[in-house]
Design goal:
126 residues, rod-shaped, 2 helices, mainly alpha
Length: 126
């Protein structure tokens, strides 16, 4: 392996590490987006339930339909964000697989005299 190949390999590992960090950051932001959407859904449902409780002119089925519509919208939004999150996880798995394959290409270089130095006194040459 030439010096240039070693430099290319080192630079690729740095780029891959940066990409993995960016993907992890994206996943954290997507988790936060899911949490925010769930919180806004809770506020939306509370306000809707409060309004529906005081509104006697609507039938029960109409009230349930409004609640269902709100839930379906929230579920759809969360599913889209979850799909983005899964995509990021797959990208990260691909990067890890590629870096794992590249790591197996390393070469062990023995010492120049062929003797492995240890701290065990019984294995030293005399």
């Amino acid at each position: 392996m030439s010096w240039m190949d070693k430099m290319k390999k080192a630079s690729k590992s740095v780029v891959d590490a940066g990409a993995k960090t960016m993907l992890k950051t994206d996943i954290v932001f997507l988790d936060r987006e899911i949490k925010t959407r769930k919180q806004s859904f809770g506020i939306e449902i509370y306000d809707l339930m409060e309004d529906l409780e005081s509104n006697d002119s609507l039938a029960v089925a109409e009230k349930e339909a409004k609640i269902r519509a709100s839930f379906d919208a929230a579920r759809k939004d969360i599913a889209v964000i979850q799909a983005k999150k899964e995509c990021k996880k797959e990208e990260m798995a691909v990067l890890e697989a590629e870096s794992g394959a590249a790591a197996s290409d390393t070469y062990d270089i023995p010492p120049s005299d062929g003797v492995v130095v240890t701290n065990d006194p019984s294995q030293t040459k005399v």
